[in-house]
Each structure stands twice: as C-alpha cells, then as structure tokens.
Write a structure and sequence with these properties.
This protein is of the alpha+beta class and 171 residues long. It contains 4 helices and 6 strands. A 6-stranded mixed β-sheet has the order 2-1-6-5-4-3.
Length: 171
C-alpha cells in the first residue's frame, strides 16, 4: 500500500466519524424532547428524502417539514448504534446502516391518550457532504418494534395502525 492509499483510508475514517456524529448525536438531539423541525431540516440536503415503512415518505424540505410537523411520537431516549458506514473515495458521498432503540410517547387511537412505547428500527442512509458538512440525503426507517410499554413486544411487536393511521393519513 502506497502513501496515497494510506492517506485516503485515514481521510475516509475521519469522515466516518463525522457521519457518526450526524446520525448518532445531531439527529436525535433535533427531536429531544419534542421535534425541532427546523433543526432536523438543517441535517438534510435540499432534496433529502425520508421513507418510513408502513407510515409514509417525504422529499425535499417543504415535504419534510410537513412530515416532521405531523410526527406524533415524542421521543424520550434514543440509542443509535452504527452498523456499517462507508465513505466513497470522493469523500463527499457515503452510505450507512443504523440500529435504533427508543423509549417514547405516542398518541394511541385505541386509548385516545399518549402511551409509553418501545421503538426499535433499522435505518439505511445515504449521505452527501454540502459546504464541508455531512447531511442526510436519504434514509429509510424500517420499524421492527413499535408497541406499548404495557403490552410489550410478545404478541404484536409492530402495531403502527394504533398510532399512525390518523397522523400520516393523506385522506
């Protein structure tokens, strides 16, 4: 391995650490204790896209703003653990996968009140560096567990209909 290859590998590792800060710290802090929509938007490229399995998607800052404003979940505690983060040789694009565990409160259609919930999800991200700052270009969130604290995840680990039907319905 020559010196140029070593330098590129080192620079990529430095960029991976910056991406970890974006997803692992700055993104959750934009939602604590309630969603700060403008802070969240600053973490996305202008054409950024979010996609939540079973809930919906949004593209661009105007749609993202509306999407995040409708988000009824009030996160209390988040743990984001990186799976694999890759930075391309161009040092301005990358991809990543993450695992998230969260305690939150969400309005239940069944009970009509805010309920404590467990949330576990996986994220598949695409990143772009804009003005020397990493931003989210795309992410897909796949909810693996969304259930009330009381009910737990034994019978129905994912019960999105009880929480999200009305919040993200476009009807």
């Amino acid at each position: 391995m020559d010196l140029d290859e070593v330098i590129l590998r080192l620079r990529k590792l430095e960029e991976v650490e910056k991406i970890k800060e974006l997803r692992g710290y700055r993104f959750p802090s934009a939602g604590d204790p309630e969603m700060d929509v403008e802070a969240a938007l600053r973490l996305f490229t202008e054409d950024g896209v979010v996609e939540y399995s079973g809930i919906g998607s949004a593209s661009g800052h105007a749609e993202l703003r509306a999407f995040f404003e409708r988000d009824p979940v009030n996160g209390r505690f988040h743990i984001f653990a990186p799976g694999k983060i890759r930075v391309a040789d161009d040092l301005v694009t990358g991809t990543g996968s993450w695992f998230m565990l969260e305690t939150a409160k969400a309005p239940s259609i069944k009970t009509g009140r805010m309920e404590p919930v467990w949330v576990q999800a996986t994220y598949e991200d695409e990143y772009a560096k804009v003005d020397d700052e990493w931003k989210l270009k795309y992410y897909k969130c796949d909810m693996r567990m969304f259930c009330t604290y009381q009910d737990g995840w034994g019978e129905s680990a994912v019960d999105l209909d009880s929480f999200f039907k009305s919040a993200f319905s476009t009807e």
